[in-house]
Amino acid sequence: MSVLLRLRNIFFYTLSIITLLLLILWGASFVVLPWQTNKQLEPLGLKLDETTNLSFNPFTLQVQIHDLALLDQQKKTQLSLKYAELDLSWLAFFSKVLLIEKAEISTLHLNAQRDETQLVIAGVNLSDRPKTATAPQTQTSNDSDPTALITGWQFNLPALAIDDVVLSINDMGHPHRIALNNLSLNNVNATLTNVNANLSLNASLNDAALSLDSKVEASLASLKLASATLDNQLEISQFALQEWQYLMPLADNQINELAMLVDLTVNQHITLDKQQWRINQPKLRLALHDIKLTQPELALTNQTITFELNQLSIDGIDQTLNNATGVATLAVDNLDVTTQGKTLASLARFEIPTATFDVDSQFNAKAHINRIVLADTLFSQPSADTDAVYQNDALIINDISWQDNHLAIDTIALDKFSSNVILTAQKELENLVLPKQNNETTSDEAVSEPAAEIEVAQIESPQADSTTAQQPAITFSLNKLELLKPSQIKFKDQSVNPVFEQLITLKTMQIETVDNRDIASMIPFNAALAFDDHALTTVKGEIAPFADKMNMSLDLTMSEFSLPPLSAYLRTVLGFDFLSGQLDNKVTLIVKDNQLDGETTIDLRGFELVSGNDTTELSATDGGAFGLNSALSMLKDDQGNVSLNVPLSGDINDPSFGVSSVVTLVAQKAIMSQAKTYLINTFVPYANIITVASIAGEYLLRLEMNDLVYDAGQVAVSEAQQPFVTQLGALLTDKPEQQVKMCPVASMQEVTAPQQALSKAEQINALKALSKQRGDTLKKVLIEQYNIESARLLLCVAKVDSDAKAQPRVEFSF
Q1: Hey, what's the torsion of the CAs at 217, 221, 224, 226, to 10 degrees?
Q2: Cis preceding linkage at 498, omega within 30
Q3: Residues 708, 698: Cα–Cα separation, whole Å
Q4: CB 562 within 8 A of CB 584
Q5: How far apart are CA 344 and CA 614, in angstroms?
Q6: Which end of the chain, N or C, is less packed with Cβ atoms under 10 Å?
Q7: If DSSP codes are grouped into helix, strand and coil, which group holds residue 463?
Q8: CA distances from 396 to 57, 375, 402, 413 (A)
Q9: Alpha-carbon distance 106 to 82, whole Å?
Q10: Which residues contact 86 (CB under 8 A, 6 or more apart)?
Q11: What does the alpha-carbon distance between residue 114 and residue 125 come to, in Å, rounded to a whole number?
């Protein structure tokens, strides 16, 4: 037998033996693999179902699994796998390539459960698994190369297909179904210098759908990332946040419930080249639907919030930002905030159509918003049958920009609005809706905590001041604020009687050129109001609100303002009601460095007065007093009108300065001043006996009669007293209806020497007798010399004044 024949036979027999062994290995795998698997599963209380088919084909390096089912001790299926296959290439090994020709998993279902004490996945309690001891690290030579074993090798995976993978999990009592509908990993190629892969994923979390397409290309240097490009397309729809709210720390923020559906779409392109990186995001869209958030005293519902961030570009070096730019949009639909079933605020739509921004490496930002729209806003409405405190059709803010810490707004346009101010009998706002305050803080905490805050503030204030000083101030400018349509303000006050109601129509309003960078700039403003079809008010002026001291000019014109509805308030201030009458008022003033200078013209037409219920005791009971009612009547012209010109001046920082100072008090002073002049001129013939006095804060006039003074022990009228008695007789003769009270008063200085020995009571009785004689004597003179009726001369009980400086006298009053 030749050598060649022998070699052929050896090769044939060897190949036959290897083939036979591989065939035996292949056939044995159907038995050995399940047996060994069950042996490993036995300590875990698990085993394979009899239908499970496991095999290994050594000829093709193929592993296959068919109909795998993992059963627990109750024979309940914890994991099932319909089909799985893994194929490796023999030939690729000779080229230093680990090639997985086929990788596929289909229809994998497994169960999982987690509670406070354990985590069980596919029947395996991971909480009971013994901890693996950490092996001691073996010190290696510094010259060893960790990449030596894999140098020149590469890994290829043309395709990995996974479909129908379902995880049924009971997490803390909450059931979830997480399904991997399809996962495809294609064109995977990895070496020591390059990594490439494509990923496509389609999954669901309960009823939410998730899809991801990703492509990565990267280069490595010494196993470190040198450059990379990553493209991502992510989409999530109908993700129910309420199904996962138990994982959130809601209780820490006093949130009872948080629910919403989330839609998210993201397209990204990320590049890295050494230390430089860039993120380009053509599209990001986040939509939140059916939002509901509840707290103990608040509830928020929102139909939709849509946010888009497009054309985003961010680049930098290492951990430093170079630049970030982008375009954003925002829309909020049907927002409602309630407390205890009452509407705190609501908004039909909030919209920012386009917002652009640019941020540099120093985080200096520039931004521009073309428009902000708030449509159908409402604040504070206790019920559907109650008028809201404020309701507005639309608020439009145009052309907003931010740069160098300056916020610039072109226009703010306020569309038609209505406001309702309803005061209760206790002067509380009836239609104001506020959440209840949480007053759980104890009194000790309430006392101790502020003290701690003060102490910290004292320690940290120097640092805070220095930090604040370094930050540039934020400035603001507004080109124009205007009211687009006439709007109404309804005022109702139930704390006065009768109930006061007034409807005010704001017809126009405009403010222009606001800029707090120029503190001395004067800002023009104007407005027009109507209190009814005929009562109109216009306001026009300029103001410098940012200066240290007030500077302002104002022209105000009010016409045909009806006075009777204000009687509930005027009665308390003025002491009477208006049964009829109109007010015209013109105010012209200038404020320069807090000093006011101007004048007001007040015209009262066709007014009729009646005493109010709240008149002061003095004006109601003292017959010698003339209140504003009488004073106004004196100043009427032949048509029953009153016209007053009143100068205005003063320091606006004076605590007594205010609206009442400019209008009510000034008007009162002017009326009383002119009425006093009238009274003085009227009673000039009786100037020796009558004085016109201002009382009750200069808002009431009294005709006061001077006292008739006597010498000690005098009874008869002396020659020096005769002019007084003559004018008194003339006044009573000219005014036949007038009565006068005469009160004789003696003084303790009139006690004579013989009376010094008497008791105090006897001295007073003697002085009263003397005082009575004086009163009787004076009354007799007026009756006999001036023919005054006795009934008009009313004598008081004789008195004694114990004051050491008191003079004997007769006091008079009307």
Answers
A1: -50
A2: yes
A3: 26
A4: no
A5: 39
A6: N
A7: helix
A8: 74, 8, 18, 5
A9: 6
A10: 62, 63, 100, 102, 103
A11: 10
- Which residue has tokens 């407390």? 339
Q: Measured between alpha carbons, how far is residue 113 from residues 43, 77, 78, 168, 634 in Å? A: 19, 14, 11, 8, 96
Q: Is the per-residue pLDDT at 761 higher than 50?
A: yes
Report the distance separating Cα 428 and Cα 240, nearest Å: 43
51-55, 141-145, 284-288: range with lowest mean pLDDT: 141-145
CA 805 to chain centre: 68
Task: Kindly state the tokens that stand for 694.
Answer: 């201002």
CA quadruple 654, 658, 662, 668: dihedral sign: negative
In the chain, % of residues over pLDDT 90: 42
Asked if 358 and 322 touch (Cβ cutoff 8 Å), the reply is no
Q: Are 414 and 482 within 8 A, CB to CB?
A: yes
Residue with tokens 């503190």: 519
Distances in whole angstroms, Cα of residue 42 to Cα of each of 36, 69, 71, 123: 10, 15, 11, 12
DSSP state of 566: G
665 φ/ψ sector (left φ>0, alpha ψ -120 to 50, else beta): alpha
Rg (CA), the chain: 50
Torsion of CA 92, 97, 98, 102, to 10 degrees: -50
How distant, in Å, are the alpha carbons of 53, 296, 342, 345, 593 from that of 337? 60, 13, 9, 5, 45
Q: Please state, in angstroms and rounded to a whole number, the distance separating the CA atoms of residues 634 and 692.
A: 15
End-to-end Cα distance, the chain: 168
The confidence band for 749, taking pLDDT boundaries of 50, 70 and 90, is confident
Residue of higher predicted confidence among 180 and 95 = 180
And the tokens for 316? 């930098």
Structural tokens at position 337: 């905030």
| Burial group, residue 560, by CB count within 10 angstroms (0-12, 13-18, 19+) | middle
Cβ atoms of 378 and 346 within 8 Å: the answer is yes
Check: CB of residue 316 under 8 Å from CB of residue 279: no
Question: Within a 10 A sphere around the Cβ of 653, how many other Cβ atoms?
Answer: 10
- Residue identified by tokens 């002073």 is 669
* Distance of alpha carbon 157 from the chain centroid: 58
Identify the CA nearest to 297 among candidates 335, 327, 341. 341
By DSSP bridging, strand 406-414 and strand 475-483 are parallel
* Cβ 569 vs Cβ 544: under 8 Å: no
Q: How far is residue 414's CA from residue 293's CA, in Å, rounded to a whole number? A: 30
Question: pLDDT tens, 784-811?
Answer: 999 999 888 888 888 899 888 899 999 9
Q: What tokens does 745 get?
A: 């008063």
The DSSP code for 440 is -
